[in-house]
C-alpha cells in the first residue's frame, strides 16, 4: 500500500509547478522512481508550505551544487530538525537575494541550525568582530567593507529566518512586528558603529581626544522601526576638529553604504547643500532661526545611536526643547497637512492605489497623523514623546487622545502594511513599496503565502490578500482624520481623569492651530453642545471630535460649527437625530461638508430634518426622478382640506426637495442640468398644486366655474433652467366656460391667480416663492390675466420684438391642458415668425441687448464677474441663441426648444453654428449657471456676482470641484477664461449677418 501511494504521488501534489521539480528532488535524494522518500516527507511538506515552493527548491539545489561536500549534513539537518527546516525553507521560498547569499557563502546555512544569541546587543559584537575591531590588524578599505557585508547579511539572514519560519513550521513562534523592526534597527545601529570604527582605523584617528562625532538616527531607524531594505537617515554632530569629523562621517557613510545600506544625511540643516557635520551650537542656532515645519516633524525621531554618547545625548536634549514647542508656530498644522498633500501628489496616478508607503491609506497617512497629534499634544503630555509610531499610537489611545478601538484598528492596519512591505523587500532585497498589480496572480499568491494568509472558501490566497489590502488601506484613510480632534473634545467636555484635562487656553490654542479663525467662539459652541449629563450631551461628546475634524476641512469651519450647534439645538427633541449621526459615519461626513460650505442648507435643514436621513444613501438622495417627485407632491397637496393647508404642504414639500437637491449638488451627486431640471420640476408641481387648490376654493365660493385657467412658464421656468433663488416667470391665460362672459371669466381667473401669488409669496425663512407675471402684455400695468383671444389680438397688433423673444421660452406648465396647448400653438406664429426677422428687427434686438447689459449691471461691481449680464455670461449666450431662433426656427423645427443647451445643439445640427463655438458657449452657460447656484448655496441668498475673494470665493470654488489645496484664484482664472472665450464667439455670431 505504501508503495502504491508513493507511486501515485507527483511533485505537483506538493505545490511545485516547475517541470524540473522532479529532477531537482531526485538530485537532492528526496525522490526516486517510486515517488518521495519516506525519510524526506517532512522536507516535502515544508516545501509545500513555502511562499514559493519552486523558488525554495531551486535555492536548495543551488546550495547543493555550490557546496557538495556539505550537502549531506544540510540534507540530514533538513530531515531531522523541524526548526531549522522551517527557517531555511521559509527564507529560500521568500527571498531569492538571501538564497544568493547562502549559495555564495557555503556553510552560512549553519547559522539557522544552532541556537544564536537573540539579544540585539550581540549584533554589534558580531559585526565588530568581522572587521577585527580593537585588534592591531583591524580591517580597512575594501577588506573591511567585504567582511562587514558578509557579517551584515548573515545576521539579516537570521532575522529573516526568525521572522518567516512560522509560515513553514507552525510550531515556531511568530515574532511581533516590534521585535522584527527592533532587530533590524539594532542591526543597522551595529553597522553604523562598525562603520565608524573602520573610519577611525582608516584615518588613524580613533584616539584623538579633541575630535568627537555623534551619529543621530532619524526616520524609521530613530523610531526603531526599520524595514529590511531602507536608507538609514542620520545627522552628524561634531566637536573639535570639524574637518576631521567630516572625514570620519563621510568615510562611515562610504563603508556602511558599500557594505550594508545607504546612509542618507539629507535631513541635516540646509539638506544636501549644508555642511555634513555641524557643532551642537550650529544645529541649535539653525533650528531656532531657520528650520521649517517638516524639520521639526522629522526631529521627533532623533536618537543618538553611535559615536560620542555624551555629545549625542546633548543633541537629543536640545532637540526635545525645540520640537515640543514647534506646534505653536504660525500655520503649523496647515504646513504639515500641505506637506502630506505634496507627498501624495508625487505618486503617479496609475500607482496611487498600489503605493504602500505614500498612497492614500498608506503608511504615511498613519505616520503623519500620529506625528501631528504628538506635536500638538505632546507639549503637555510627555507620555506621547516617543520616536516609535506604534508606541506613540498606543500612548495616544491610552491617554484618551484617540479612541481605543480606533487606535487598535490603526495599529492592526499599519502592521499589516508594514508586513506586506517587508515581504516585498525580502524578495530581492530591494527597496520597494509597490503592491503587485491585480493581474500578477502568481506574485500575489507568493506574497500572500509569505504574509501567512490562507485561502478562504471560494477565494484563493491572492484574492484574500487583495481584499485585506484594500480594507486596511480604506480603514487607515477613514480613521486618519479622526485622530486630530479627540483630545480637544475631551478637554472641553470634561474628562473624568484629571491628568487628561486641558485648560481653556490650551484648548483655544489647539483650535487655532487646527484652522478655526475664532477659537474662543468655537469653544463656546462646544461647551454648549456638551453641557450637562443628559444622553444628548453624552452623544454629542462622542460625535464632536469627528464633527470638528471634518469641519476643519471645509471652507468655513467656524460657520459650520455654529450651524451645527443651531441645527442640533433646533432638533434636540427629534428622537432619531443624534442616533443617525452616531450610527452612520457617512451622514456625519456629508453633514459636516454641507454645514461648512453652505449657509442655505442649515436654514432649510432645521425645517426639513427628514432629509438628514437621506445623506447616508446617495441613491435615495440623488436618484429620485423629477416626474416622480412632482407626482408625489401633487398627490399630497390634493389631500389637504383647504387652500391654506394645501399651500403650506406645497411649500413644505418644496423645501424638502430644495434641500435634497442642494445636498446632492454640494456632494457632487447631481450635475448642473439635473439640478435645474429638479428645481424647475418641483416649482411646476407647486404651481400646479396651488392653482388647483385656489381654483377649487373659488369655485366652491361661487358654486360654479366660469373659466378654465392655464399657466404658461416663461424665462428659466419655461426652459426648465431654474436655480435655487430663481423667481417663477409666468403668464396666466383663461377662457370662459359655456354660459359665462369673458369679463366674468377674467375676474374669476384673476382672483385665482392673485390667490396663488399671495399664498406662495408670503414671507418665509425659505428661499422666496415669487410668482412673477411681469412678462405679460403691457407689463405690470396690464391685466394679470387675459383670455386667449385677448392675447392673440394684443400680439397681432401691439406685440414687440422683445415679447416675441420672451415667448421663445414659453411652455405650458399648469391648469387646463387643452387651453395651454392652444396658447402654445397660437404663439408659435409669433415667436417663430415666417421668413424670420427683417434687418430692422434684428438691429432692434442687438440694440436692446447692449442697452440691457449696460444699464442693469450694478455699479461698483466687476462686470466681467456677473454671471447673468457679464461678458460671456448667461445673457450673452441666451440672446445669441434666441436671435438664431427668431431668425431660423420657422424653417428649422429642431430649433423650437425652450432649453438653451438644446437650442445650441440644434444650431450645430442645422449648420448655423460651428461645433466648437457651440461647445464653448455651452460650457460658459453651464459654468455661469453652476456658479450662480453655488453662490446661492454658499451665501444663502441669491446673487449674480461671482465672489472675488475670501471664504465665499473659496467655498464656491470647492462647490465647483476645486480641492482645498487649490488656489481659489485658479477657479476665477478659469471662469474669466471660459467667459472671455464665449464672449468673443457671441460678438462674432450675434452680430453676423
Automatic annotation (TrEMBL):
Region (Adenylyl transferase): 496-993
GO function term, MF aspect, one: [glutamate-ammonia-ligase] adenylyltransferase activity
One Gene Ontology biological process: regulation of glutamine family amino acid metabolic process
Cofactor(s) required, per the database record: Mg(2+)
InterPro entries per record: GlnE, GlnE_rpt_dom, NT_sf, PII_UdlTrfase/GS_AdlTrfase
Enzyme class, spelled out: transferase
Keyword Protein biosynthesis carried by entry: no
Keywords: ATP-binding, Magnesium, Multifunctional enzyme, Nucleotide-binding, Nucleotidyltransferase, Transferase
A Pfam family hit: GlnD_UR_UTase
Gene Ontology, cellular component aspect: cytosol
Xref: CDD domains: NT_GlnE_GlnD_like
Glutamate-ammonia ligase adenylyltransferase repeated domain ranges (all copies): 87-315, 589-824
Segments for region (Adenylyl removase): 1-488
Protein origin, superkingdom: Bacteria
Domain PII-uridylyltransferase/Glutamine-synthetase adenylyltransferase intervals: 337-484, 847-990
Catalytic activity field: [glutamine synthetase]-O(4)-(5'-adenylyl)-L-tyrosine + phosphate = [glutamine synthetase]-L-tyrosine + ADP; [glutamine synthetase]-L-tyrosine + ATP = [glutamine synthetase]-O(4)-(5'-adenylyl)-L-tyrosine + diphosphate
Listed EC numbers: 2.7.7.89, 2.7.7.42
NCBIfam families documented for this protein: PRK14109.1
Function: Involved in the regulation of glutamine synthetase GlnA, a key enzyme in the process to assimilate ammonia. When cellular nitrogen levels are high, the C-terminal adenylyl transferase (AT) inactivates GlnA by covalent transfer of an adenylyl group from ATP to specific tyrosine residue of GlnA, thus reducing its activity. Conversely, when nitrogen levels are low, the N-terminal adenylyl removase (AR) activates GlnA by removing the adenylyl group by phosphorolysis, increasing its activity.
Membership in a protein family: Belongs to the GlnE family.
Protein name: Bifunctional glutamine synthetase adenylyltransferase/adenylyl-removing enzyme
Amino acid at each position: 500500500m505504501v508503495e502504491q501511494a508513493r507511486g501515485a504521488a507527483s511533485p505537483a501534489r506538493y505545490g511545485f509547478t516547475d517541470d524540473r521539480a522532479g529532477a531537482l528532488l531526485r538530485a537532492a535524494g528526496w525522490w526516486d522512481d517510486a515517488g518521495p522518500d519516506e525519510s524526506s516527507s517532512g522536507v516535502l511538506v515544508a516545501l509545500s508550505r513555502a511562499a514559493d515552493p519552486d523558488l525554495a527548491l531551486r535555492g536548495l539545489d543551488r546550495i547543493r551544487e555550490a557546496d557538495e561536500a556539505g550537502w549531506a549534513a544540510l540534507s540530514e539537518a533538513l530531515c531531522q530538525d523541524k526548526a531549522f527546516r522551517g527557517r531555511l525553507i521559509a527564507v529560500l521560498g521568500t527571498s531569492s537575494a538571501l538564497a544568493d547569499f547562502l549559495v555564495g557563502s557555503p556553510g552560512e546555512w549553519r547559522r539557522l541550525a544552532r541556537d544564536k544569541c537573540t539579544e540585539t546587543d550581540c549584533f554589534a559584537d558580531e559585526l565588530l568582530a568581522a572587521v577585527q575591531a580593537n585588534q592591531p590588524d583591524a580591517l580597512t578599505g575594501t577588506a573591511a567593507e567585504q567582511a562587514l557585508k558578509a557579517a551584515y547579511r548573515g545576521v539579516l539572514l537570521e532575522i529573516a529566518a526568525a521572522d518567516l519560519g512560522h509560515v513553514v513550521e507552525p510550531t515556531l513562534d511568530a515574532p511581533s512586528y516590534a521585535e522584527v523592526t527592533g532587530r533590524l534597527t539594532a542591526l543597522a545601529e551595529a553597522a553604523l558603529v562598525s562603520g565608524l570604527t573602520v573610519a577611525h582605523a582608516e584615518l588613524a584617528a580613533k584616539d584623538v581626544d579633541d575630535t568627537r562625532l555623534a551619529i543621530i538616527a532619524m526616520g524609521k531607524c530613530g523610531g526603531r522601526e526599520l524595514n529590511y531594505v531602507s536608507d538609514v537617515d542620520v545627522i552628524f554632530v561634531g566637536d573639535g576638529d570639524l574637518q576631521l569629523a567630516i572625514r570620519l562621517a563621510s568615510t562611515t557613510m562610504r563603508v556602511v553604504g558599500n557594505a550594508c545600506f545607504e546612509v542618507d544625511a539629507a535631513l541635516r540643516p540646509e539638506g544636501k547643500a549644508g555642511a555634513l557635520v555641524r557643532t551642537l551650537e550650529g544645529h541649535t542656532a539653525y533650528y531656532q532661526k531657520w528650520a521649517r515645519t517638516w524639520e521639526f516633524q522629522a526631529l521627533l525621531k532623533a536618537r543618538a545611536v553611535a559615536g560620542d554618547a555624551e555629545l549625542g545625548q546633548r543633541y537629543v536634549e536640545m532637540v526635545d526643547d525645540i520640537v515640543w514647542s514647534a506646534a505653536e508656530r504660525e500655520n503649523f498644522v496647515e504646513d504639515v497637512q500641505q506637506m502630506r498633500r505634496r507627498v501624495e501628489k508625487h505618486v503617479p496616478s496609475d500607482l496611487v492605489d498600489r503605493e504602500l508607503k505614500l498612497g492614500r491609506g498608506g503608511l504615511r497617512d498613519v505616520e503623519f497623523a500620529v506625528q501631528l497629534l504628538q506635536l500638538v499634544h505632546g507639549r503637555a503630555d510627555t507620555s506621547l514623546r516617543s520616536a516609535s509610531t506604534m508606541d506613540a499610537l498606543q500612548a495616544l489611545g491610552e491617554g484618551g487622545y484617540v479612541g481605543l478601538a480606533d487606535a487598535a484598528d490603526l495599529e492592526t492596519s499599519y502592521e499589516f502594511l508594514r508586513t506586506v512591505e517587508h515581504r516585498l523587500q525580502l524578495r530581492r532585497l530591494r527597496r520597494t513599496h509597490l503592491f503587485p498589480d491585480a493581474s500578477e496572480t502568481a506574485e500575489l499568491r507568493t506574497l500572500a503565502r509569505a504574509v501567512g494568509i490562507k485561502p478562504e472558501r471560494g477565494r484563493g490566497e491572492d484574492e484574500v490578500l487583495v481584499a485585506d489590502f484594500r480594507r486596511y488601506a480604506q480603514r487607515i484613510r477613514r480613521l486618519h482624520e479622526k485622530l486630530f480632534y479627540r483630545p480637544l473634545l475631551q478637554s472641553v467636555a470634561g474628562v473624568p481623569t484629571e491628568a487628561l484635562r486641558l485648560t481653556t487656553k490650551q484648548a483655544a490654542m489647539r483650535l487655532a492651530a487646527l484652522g478655526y479663525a475664532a477659537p474662543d467662539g468655537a469653544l463656546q459652541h462646544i461647551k454648549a453642545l456638551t453641557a450637562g449629563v443628559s444622553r444628548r450631551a453624552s452623544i454629542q461628546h462622542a460625535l464632536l471630535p469627528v464633527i470638528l475634524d471634518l469641519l476643519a476641512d471645509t471652507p468655513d469651519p467656524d460657520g459650520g460649527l455654529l450651524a451645527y450647534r443651531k441645527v442640533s439645538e433646533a432638533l434636540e427633541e427629534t428622537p432619531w437625530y443624534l442616533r443617525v449621526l452616531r450610527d452612520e459615519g457617512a451622514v456625519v461626513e456629508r453633514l459636516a461638508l454641507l454645514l461648512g460650505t453652505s449657509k442655505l442648507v442649515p436654514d432649510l435643514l432645521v425645517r426639513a430634518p427628514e432629509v438628514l436621513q437621506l445623506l447616508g444613501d446617495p441613491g435615495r438622495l440623488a436618484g429620485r426622478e423629477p416626474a416622480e417627485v412632482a407626482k408625489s407632491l401633487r398627490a399630497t397637496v390634493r389631500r389637504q382640506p383647504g387652500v391654506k393647508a394645501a399651500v403650506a404642504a406645497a411649500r413644505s414639500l418644496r423645501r424638502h426637495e430644495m434641500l435634497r437637491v442642494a445636498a446632492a449638488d454640494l456632494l457632487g451627486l447631481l450635475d448642473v442640468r439635473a439640478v435645474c431640471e429638479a428645481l424647475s420640476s418641483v416649482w411646476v408641481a407647486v404651481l400646479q398644486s396651488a392653482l388647483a387648490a385656489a381654483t377649487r376654493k373659488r369655485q366652491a365660493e361661487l358654486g360654479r366655474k366660469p373659466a378654465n385657467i392655464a399657466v404658461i412658464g416663461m424665462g428659466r421656468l419655461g426652459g426648465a433652467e431654474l436655480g435655487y433663488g430663481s423667481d417663477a416667470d409666468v403668464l396666466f391665460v383663461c377662457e370662459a366656460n359655456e354660459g359665462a362672459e369673458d369679463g366674468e371669466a377674467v375676474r374669476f381667473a384673476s382672483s385665482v391667480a392673485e390667490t396663488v401669488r399671495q399664498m406662495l409669496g408670503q414671507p418665509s425663512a425659505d428661499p422666496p416663492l415669487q410668482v412673477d407675471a411681469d412678462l405679460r402684455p403691457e407689463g405690470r400695468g396690464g391685466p394679470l390675466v387675459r383670455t386667449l383671444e385677448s392675447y392673440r389680438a394684443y400680439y397681432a397688433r401691439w406685440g414687440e420684438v422683445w415679447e416675441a423673444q420672451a415667448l421663445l421660452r414659453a411652455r405650458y406648465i399648469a391648469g387646463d391642458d387643452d387651453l395651454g396647448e392652444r396658447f402654445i400653438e397660437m404663439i408659435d406664429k409669433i415667436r417663430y415668425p415666417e421668413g424670420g426677422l427683417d434687418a430692422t428687427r434684428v438691429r432692434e434686438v442687438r440694440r436692446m441687448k447692449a442697452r440691457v447689459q449696460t444699464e442693469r449691471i450694478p455699479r461698483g461691481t466687476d462686470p466681467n464677474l456677473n454671471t447673468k449680464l457679464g461678458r460671456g455670461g448667461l445673457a450673452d449666450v441666451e440672446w445669441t441663441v434666441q436671435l438664431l431662433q427668431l431668425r431660423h426656427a420657422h424653417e428649422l423645427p429642431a430649433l423650437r426648444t425652450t432649453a438653451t443647451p438644446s437650442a445650441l445643439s440644434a444650431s450645430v445640427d442645422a449648420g448655423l453654428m460651428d461645433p466648437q463655438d457651440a461647445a464653448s458657449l455651452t460650457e460658459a452657460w453651464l459654468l455661469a449657471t453652476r456658479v450662480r447656484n453655488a453662490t446661492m448655496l454658499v451665501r444663502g441668498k441669491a446673487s449674480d456676482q461671482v465672489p472675488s475673494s475670501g471664504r465665499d470665493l473659496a467655498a464656491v470654488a470647492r462647490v465647483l470641484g476645486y480641492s482645498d489645496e487649490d488656489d481659489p484664484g485658479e477657479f476665477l482664472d478659469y471662469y474669466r477664461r471660459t467667459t472671455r472665450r464665449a464672449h468673443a464667439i457671441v460678438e462674432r455670431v450675434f452680430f453676423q449677418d
